[in-house]
Amino acid sequence: MRKLKYWLLIATVAVLLTACGEGDNQKSPFLTDKVSSGKSEALQIPEGTGESGSPHIVTEDDTLPPREGMRRSLLTNEWVDENVAQTRPIAVMIPNENNAKPQYSLSDASILYEANVEGRMTRLMAIYEGWEGLEKIGNVRSLRTYYAYWAFEWDAFIVHCGGPFYVDDLLAQPTTQTINEIDASDSSAFFRDESRKPPHNAYTTGQGILGVINRNGYSLNYRGLTEQNHFRFATKAEPNTMTQYGDEAKSAYYIDMSGCYPLTRCYFDYNEQDGLYYRSQHLASGTDGPHIDAPSGEQLSFKNILVQYVYYEQLDESGYLAFQCLDNTRDGWFFTNGKGIHVNWEKAEDYSPTRFYDDYGNEIILNTGKTMICVVEEGDNFTFR
Questions:
Q1: Is residue 199 reached through a cis peptide bond, with omega within 30 degrees of 0 on the bond before it?
Q2: Is the alpha carbon torsion for 89, 348, 330, 172 positive or negative?
Q3: Using an 8 Å Cβ cutoff, are 278 and 42 in contact?
Q4: What's the pLDDT tens digit per position in 221-238?
Q5: Which DSSP category does 55 fall into?
Q6: pLDDT for position 329
Q7: Are 95 and 202 in contact (CB under 8 A)?
Q8: In this predicted structure, what is the pLDDT of residue 216?
């Protein structure tokens, strides 16, 4: 059991988290009233939902499957067809910069990772289930080592366009299965959109990926390398309202990640009407607004947001990074239903899940739905209110 940590409340408007120093496991999230001034106009946060307000929790009777032959998704806990639940997901590397927009099929991802790459630009890794019918995914870019470790947790096929030599050892492991554009045997899964300039014009399709998987003799079913219960979930009928944490659960209707991602500067607005966090961005080009998926026209939204502080190092003058994905008792935050709590995380092995625990040592319970995982460098900070 971890001891409960007591945090100093300096102001009641917002919270500024300061990461612990390298090698220091003492957590010190200081509270302050500084928040980003930029905010999306796409969503109107209801009045009267400040520090003292209690969020409206959206409930739904999902006790029984909508029809026969459905199972709970391992990624979202939603009811999905049995074949979808049994099929391994894909993990697609997608750039997140102005020249990469518009992006395709991001709103179809069940889990979305974001982390810095060289130059403080971020890259996304989208985890998809039921991916076979997707007609255009991407654009697709190169892999970094740390994304591979997160993809391993889901026994996912990694879809990418090459990568620096740092990834070579991981790609050579016999259990690693990728669909790599620069590999001649995999290139048929990709196409280049001539209306876009390279390198932001490589895309893939669900059927193209499936063809390569079948040709390479990969198993579509889970291989027994990962744990079936990656996340713990609450149902929509009995959601995690965070009330069990009392005042330790802080109001979180607006989450600003610009201190961690200074070029893309994403932020999230909580919408009480549907209980989701909606993602927006300030890009370096000056564009500001909702993060939209091109084919659907939908703004990206999530039921759960995890912020994971990770020890990192810069590997060379080109700015390539290494994140210590396998670690013990590093810290972070968990947000859902308009509330946030401090958490700790650990990951023991390549294919074991990253598990998140509250300050009492209990594994956190996510709400049914999509999850955004913001992986941030120790020493950076973000705000919420």
A1: yes
A2: negative
A3: yes
A4: 999 999 989 999 999 999
A5: P
A6: 84
A7: no
A8: 96
Q: What is the CA radius of gyration of the chain?
A: 20
The single residue listed with the structure tokens 């007609």 is 135
Compute CA distances 73 → 95, 134, 368, whole Å: 26, 18, 9
Residue 297 carries which side chain, given as an amino acid letter? Answer: G
Q: Which long-range contacts (CB under 8 A, 24 or more apart) does 47-53 make?
A: 49/251, 49/253, 49/272, 49/338, 50/251, 51/12, 51/13, 51/251, 51/385, 53/251
Structure tokens at 4: 């409960």
For residue 299, the one-letter residue type is Q
Q: Which residues pair with 280 in a beta bridge?
A: 267, 290
Type of residue at 259:
G
In the block, tokens 């014009």 appear at 201
User: Among 36-50, 130-144, 257-271, 318-332, which is the least confidently predicted range?
Assistant: 36-50
Q: How far apart are CA 123 and CA 265, in angstroms?
A: 12
Structure token pair of residue 82: 């049995």
Question: Which residue's entry shows tokens 């003292």?
Answer: 52
Structure tokens at 295: 């084919």
Phi/psi at 165 (5° precision): -65, -15
Q: Using CA atoms, how far apart are residues 350 and 159, in angstroms rounded to an integer?
A: 18
